[in-house]
């Protein structure tokens, strides 16, 4: 009998590559950051939820009405939580390439991603950007900095320029991702818009255990979003059912969540057999985590996109992913709703994002 072939993984991202991914959200409050990291592993549901919230009838839902409708949706509870933070949900949908990269990094290197958050928070603290104030409380030893809302009923989302908030960026070859429209000078302080009053008090169902590199689950809050589907353990685990048709970034991650047979299926769909496989024509692939500037087919603007591994290779990128979400929209929404044609917004032409999701 032939020996079983080992499941190969792409080389892990370096600390510099992970830092640039988490920089735009590293200074967010812990409860919100946990939901973003989890949601980024389900990019297709991010697209669906953002499109759903753009329907006028859904956008008007508030309070108990919104809670009741969200309970009927099949999305992961992290996606439902972000429905209270509509500006944040729009940001991660508008920047889908970055969201894919962040989610794949979190799946493959969860401990490294959490360490990167702490590393950047220490830099921000040293630069004078991160401190307690009326909006948030910064606490903990320097190795485990926690950021919590002053009041659990009001959440303030910081707006900052990653090139300024952390002081001199330590890796110039890997500049941080940035989604705002910034002026030509650096002001290393956090700005806050109006507070967001989540319509439901149980949205923050996950909290960090920084030292153990876990996200722990509050089962009582989780059950409010996904009754009768609570996980059996106390620590969050990725649920492949919410991944849908989005492929995993490499055979090792696919095998971990789908079983060894996923590697054969992945290669059958045309993925590289190993991480060292060259591109067609003998041109070597860009190393994982490196990026090039290519036209963004979703927004018509230029933004960094990782070229290897091919996160959406099985069904195309960007616009194709949204098309796939739209085709599955009516079958997964409850109740089904007609989807009006939505113009593609241009976030580069807008001022720094305003994260209002509730009443100001």
State which percent range the strand residues make up. Answer: 5-15%
**SS elements, strand count:** 8
Over all CA atoms, what is the radius of gyration? 20 Å
SSE order in H/E notation?
Answer: HHHHHHHHHEEEHEEEHHHEEH
Number of helix segments?
14
Instruction: Indicate how many domains the architecture comprises.
Output: 1
Largest sheet: 2 strands, antiparallel
What distance lies between the first and last C-alpha atoms, to the nearest angstrom? 67 Å
Structural class from helices and strands?
Answer: mainly alpha
Kindly report the spatial arrangement of strands forming the biggest sheet: 1-2
Average pLDDT level? 75
Provide the low-confidence segments as ranges: 266-318, 329-354, 356-360
Shape: globular
Helix content: 25-40%
């Amino acid at each position: 009998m032939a020996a079983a072939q080992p499941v190969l993984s792409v080389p892990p991202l370096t600390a510099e590559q992970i830092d640039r991914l988490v920089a735009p959200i590293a200074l967010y409050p812990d409860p919100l950051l946990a939901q973003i990291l989890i949601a980024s592993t389900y990019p297709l549901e991010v697209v669906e939820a953002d499109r759903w919230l753009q329907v006028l009838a859904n956008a008007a839902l508030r309070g108990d009405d919104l809670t009741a409708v969200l309970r009927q949706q099949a999305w992961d509870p992290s996606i439902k939580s972000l429905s209270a933070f509509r500006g944040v949900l729009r940001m991660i949908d508008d920047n889908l390439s970055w969201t894919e990269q962040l989610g794949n990094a979190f799946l493959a290197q969860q401990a490294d991603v959490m360490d990167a958050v702490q590393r950047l928070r220490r830099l921000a603290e040293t630069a004078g950007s991160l401190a307690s104030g009326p909006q948030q409380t910064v606490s903990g030893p320097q190795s485990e900095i926690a950021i919590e809302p002053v009041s659990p009923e009001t959440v303030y989302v910081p707006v900052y320029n990653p090139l300024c908030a952390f002081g001199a960026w330590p890796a110039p070859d890997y500049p941080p991702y940035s989604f705002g429209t910034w002026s030509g000078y650096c002001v290393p302080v956090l700005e806050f818009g109006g507070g967001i009053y989540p319509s439901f008090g149980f949205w923050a169902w996950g909290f960090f255990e920084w030292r153990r590199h876990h996200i722990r689950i509050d089962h009582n809050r989780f059950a409010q979003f996904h009754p009768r589907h609570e996980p059996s353990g106390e620590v969050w685990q990725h649920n492949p059912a919410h991944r849908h048709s989005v492929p995993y970034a490499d055979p090792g991650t696919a095998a971990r969540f789908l079983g060894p047979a996923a590697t054969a299926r992945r290669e059958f769909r045309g993925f590289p057999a190993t991480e060292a496989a060259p591109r067609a024509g003998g041109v070597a692939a860009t190393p994982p985590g490196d990026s090039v500037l290519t036209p963004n087919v979703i927004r018509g603007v230029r933004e960094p996109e990782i070229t290897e591994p091919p996160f959406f290779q099985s069904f195309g990128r960007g616009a194709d992913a949204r098309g796939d979400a739209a085709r599955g929209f009516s079958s997964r929404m409850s109740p089904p709703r007609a989807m009006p044609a939505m113009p593609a917004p241009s976030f580069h032409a807008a001022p720094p994002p305003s994260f209002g999701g509730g009443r100001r």
